[in-house]
Amino acid sequence: MEYETPLFFHVMEYADRADRDVIDMVSGNPDWEPPQALRDGLHEYADLEPDQFQYPPSDGLRELREEIAARRGVDTEQVVITNGAGEANYLAMARALERDRGDEIVLADPVYPYYPGKTTMLGGTQRFVPTDETGHLDPADVRAVASEETAAIVVNSPNNPTGAVYPAETIEALVEIAEEYDAILVSDEVYDHYDLSGTFSSALELDSEHRIVTNAFSKSMAITGFRVGYAIFPPDLVENAKSRHMLVNVAGSRPSQYAVLQALRETGPAYYEQNRELLRERVETFTDALDAAGAEYSTPQGSFYVLARFEDYPGTLENVERLIDEAGVAGMPGEAFGDSRRDWLRFALVTPRVEEAAARLATYFN
């Protein structure tokens, strides 16, 4: 079986080799501070007894799972701590396919490239449903492709790369479709703290045995390197997920989980709101410059990405490399996210140099 390396790595390596200063707008690594309580938790951890430097429970520190369960309104036994949201989605999609209800995974287009990649790795087949011009998914379109072969419907809200935030009625309709076809809705909610619209709705608000919710602290606490995520499974699906997690990972990082627990307990809403406000300012700065450059663009309702289309400049890998060489701005080619946004480029607003990048783009395209 052939696995395709995601284009993220190619673009980042190309930008690193560039013979000039390049502003990185490729990867979703928040550039702002993590919670102070997280730093304090790490310092505290360093002085613990040696037994605390050994394997944690495979499914995660009990206290962290309890904290997540209490916040999300589920039973602790439904929560599995994972190696970031990436592993959480892998476990969720694997459980959906292991049920032998079909081998098709329904995905939105544009799509976060790791979903189709995981589908291939797990032996599934992709079925793509185009979103509308704002990035929203119409449940009627999903229903039109759903069948007895549908193992899972995978959605991401707030969305990467479109910035769309799916309203409650969309999530509810998708759960109903999953129930109708005995499939699983996998709801990746890793950007839930970056809802700029006030319309985000979690699939956990619906009581169903046909949905798995995944999340992580990578984005919300600006700690992508800590690799602490989680998945919340229906009771009848969780045990096999724990077994697969144990066989693949043995366990996660105890110090990372310890620090995240401290931060969860001690970080108030103000931390998250200040980061959303910073993001709102960056969206305005960047889209103003895109206006000046005569570009068409998406204004994100959530997450921290902007899709932009420049006249006669399709979103190919070749054009991304050209933009790095000639403008000093690194984005992602639209073709990396599927067929429907091939003419577009995606930019991540997680750099303090957003204003400078915007000015470079405006100059380059004028």
From TrEMBL:
The keyword Transferase applies. GO terms for biological process: amino acid metabolic process. Its cofactor is pyridoxal 5'-phosphate. SUPFAM superfamilies: PLP-dependent transferases (SSF53383). The keyword Transferase applies. InterPro entries: Aminotransferase_I/II_large, AspAT/PAT-like, PyrdxlP-dep_Trfase, PyrdxlP-dep_Trfase_major. Pfam families: Aminotran_1_2 (PF00155). Residues 21-357 form the Aminotransferase class I/classII large domain. Keywords: Aminotransferase, Pyridoxal phosphate, Transferase. GO terms for molecular function: pyridoxal phosphate binding; transaminase activity. Belongs to the class-I pyridoxal-phosphate-dependent aminotransferase family. Homodimer. This is Aspartate transaminase. It comes from Natronorubrum bangense JCM 10635. The lineage of its organism: Archaea, Methanobacteriati, Methanobacteriota, Stenosarchaea group, Halobacteria.
